[in-house]
Design goal:
alpha/beta, Rossmann fold, six-stranded parallel β-sheet, 15% strand, elongated
C-alpha cells in the first residue's frame, strides 16, 4: 500500500522492496496505489505484480484478492490497511519512514495498535514509536538503490564544470525539510575563500523558483533540476552536502556512499544511523552554515580524509542492501503466515 501522490524517498524504497521481492519468485504481490501514481510506471515491468487503484482510504478494498498480509508504506496507507483489516480480517504491517512523531489521536492509536507489526527505518523513529506504547517496533533500515551509472555521462557532467571541485546536493527542493538555504549560505561563505568549489543542486520541488531567485547572484551555485539518471550525476561529484533540518533516514546518502563520494551531513533524525562522524562521513549541527562551510573546507583540503571516509562508508553497505531489507521483511511476513506473535 502506498497512496502518495508523488515519488520521493519512501516511494523509491517501496519500489525497491517490490522489485527485490519479485526477484525471489515465491511471493504474489499486489500494489494498491493512486491511479496517477509514478509507481505504476516505475514498476510496470515487474513480473507478476498486480495494480489496484485507490485514490483515498475508502477505495480499492473490493478489488484486492484475498491477501495473507497488507504492508502499509505511508500515512494514508496505514488507515487503508486498518479499514481493510476491519472489512476482511487481513493482518497488516506498518512501516514508519518520517521522524516527526505520530499524532496521538484516536484514529492513529487504533491503526497502530491493530497492526500485527510496526517497523521503523531508523533508531530515532523506533524510539518515537516505542514512546507511544502502541506495541513493539522492529528496526529495518532503508536500502541503497544500486543506481546505474554511465562513465561517459558522468564524464560529460563533470566536464561541464571543468576545473571545479563539485559539491553536490540531491533532494526535494523543500527548504523547511532539506535545508537548502543553509547550504546556499555556506556557499556564500566559501565563494571568495574557495572559489574553486562549485555547488550543484539536483532535484525539484515547491521552493525551486524561490531558491534560484535568492541565489541568482552566486556564481558558485548551479541548479540542474530533476534527473532521471541521477546515478550519473552522483558519481561525478567530489563531495556531497546534506543539510537536512529533519530526516527519517536519508536513503540518498546510501546511494552517494555506494558511488564512493564523501559526505557532510547534519546530525538530525536518522542520519547518524548512516553517517558516523569522522568514520563514514562528517556530521554538523543543523541550521549552522558556518559549521557546514568549515566541514566542507576540511574535507576539501584533505584528500586522505575523503578517501578514508568513502572507503569506510562503502564497507558498511552490506547491512543496507536491498537483499538485507527484503530478508528482514520476508522474516516478518513468514511469522505472520505462521501466525506467530
Amino acid at each position: 500500500m502506498n497512496l502518495a501522490k508523488g515519488f520521493r524517498g519512501g516511494e523509491r524504497q517501496t519500489a525497491l522492496l517490490i522489485e527485490t521481492l519479485a526477484s525471489r519468485g515465491n511471493l504474489q504481490q499486489t500494489l494498491v496505489c493512486r491511479k496517477d501514481s509514478p509507481l505504476r510506471e516505475v514498476l510496470r515491468d515487474v513480473s507478476g505484480l498486480r495494480f489496484v487503484s485507490a485514490n483515498h482510504q475508502l477505495a480499492g478494498h473490493g478489488s484486492v484478492r484475498k491477501a495473507d498480509t497488507v504492508h502499509a508504506h505511508e500515512a494514508k496507507a496505514v488507515h487503508w490497511a486498518f479499514l481493510h483489516h476491519g472489512l476482511k480480517g487481513v493482518p497488516y504491517i506498518v512501516t514508519r519512514r518520517v521522524d516527526t512523531p505520530v499524532k496521538d489521536r484516536p484514529s492513529n492509536r487504533w491503526c497502530y495498535r491493530r497492526a500485527v507489526r510496526r517497523v521503523a527505518i531508523s533508531r530515532v523513529i523506533m524510539r518515537e514509536l516505542e514512546m507511544r506504547g502502541w506495541g513493539g517496533v522492529d528496526l529495518i533500515p532503508s536500502a541503497f538503490s544500486g543506481l546505474p551509472t554511465c562513465e561517459e555521462a558522468t564524464r560529460r557532467f563533470h566536464d561541464t564544470f571543468a576545473g571545479k571541485f563539485l559539491v553536490g546536493h540531491a533532494g526535494a527542493l523543500v527548504d523547511r525539510h532539506k535545508g537548502q538555504r543553509v547550504l546556499l549560505e555556506a556557499a556564500r561563505l566559501l565563494e571568495t575563500r574557495l572559489p574553486e568549489l562549485q555547488f550543484v543542486f539536483l532535484g525539484d520541488g515547491e521552493d525551486r523558483e524561490m531558491l534560484e531567485r535568492e541565489s541568482a547572484d552566486q556564481p558558485n551555485v548551479a541548479w540542474l533540476g530533476f534527473k532521471e539518471n541521477i546515478g550519473d550525476y552522483l558519481a561525478g561529484l567530489d563531495m556531497f552536502a546534506f543539510p537536512s533540518r529533519n530526516e527519517g533516514l536519508g536513503s540518498v546518502l546510501l546511494d552517494v556512499m555506494n558511488v564512493g563520494v564523501p559526505i557532510v551531513a547534519t546530525d538530525v533524525g536518522g542520519i547518524p544511523d548512516i553517517v558516523q562522524d569522522n568514520k563514514t562521513g562528517l556530521l554538523v549541527p543543523k541550521d549552522d552554515a558556518i559549521a557546514l562551510s568549515d566541514a566542507l573546507t576540511r574535507l576539501y583540503r584533505s584528500e586522505s580524509l575523503r578517501a578514508q571516509l568513502s572507503q569506510s562508508a562503502k564497507q558498511q553497505l552490506d547491512r543496507f542492501s536491498p537483499e538485507a531489507m527484503a530478508d528482514s521483511y520476508i522474516s516478518i511476513y513468514e511469522s505472520i503466515f505462521r501466525q506467530e506473535p
